[in-house]
Amino acid sequence: MTIYPAIDIKSGRCVRLTQGRADQETVYAEHPADVAAEFKQAGSEWVHVVDLDGAFAGEPQNLEAVRAIAALGMKVQLGGGLRTRTAVERALGFGVSRVVIGTRAAESETFVGELVQALGEKVAVGIDAKNGKVAVKGWVATAELTAIALAQRMDALGVRTLIHTDISTDGMLTGPNFPAQEAMLRAGRFRVIASGGVSRREDVVKLAELARRHANLDGVIVGKALYEKRVSLPDLLRIR
Q1: Domains of the chain, with CATH numbers?
Q2: What's the predicted TM-score (pTM) here?
Q3: What is the distance between the alpha carbons of residues 147 and 29, in angstroms, rounded to a whole number?
């Protein structure tokens, strides 16, 4: 199970939002690449990056900061504002290893299908769920589609990696929504990266146990718990 330490970028800085709310922002570092360098030194191969400005604007806004992270030699998984083929290809050109399609996945299966055909494993779909329904456009809107239904549509298109975020737990340090994550794992053939709520080492241990029962649990994204020093990245990387 892969640990994906998270970096959220807003106005070029490393921040965290509580439940995705722009008015609930905490700044942790002026230079996201400095944070990524610490993750790399700790032994992390991947970093999960969200361009928050891009998520709200509908187009990536912080690609220079992303380029600086990729230049460290880390594998970058990037989401936020990737709603056109041009934006996706530009991000890949900046050194991104895997793009995460969120809002557009809920709007256009054709768009996702064409991307998967062209780029294969470089494409993941982010499914952000609020009370089981899909949240879009930086989490400020909710679609009528359920998270499970969208996941199954993405499975049919050949999407191999889904990032499933439970908004109610994101940034709250209350623990993951394990039932929701397990339901997603049972929904299809895709790999799932769990996101939202990790607050302590025991949460990651429990997810590792879940991964032993469900081979398609690819990993977990850890954000605020790292920044608040509730968990240690080198320690999490040793959990099997």
Answers
A1: 2-237 (3.20.20.70)
A2: 0.94
A3: 33
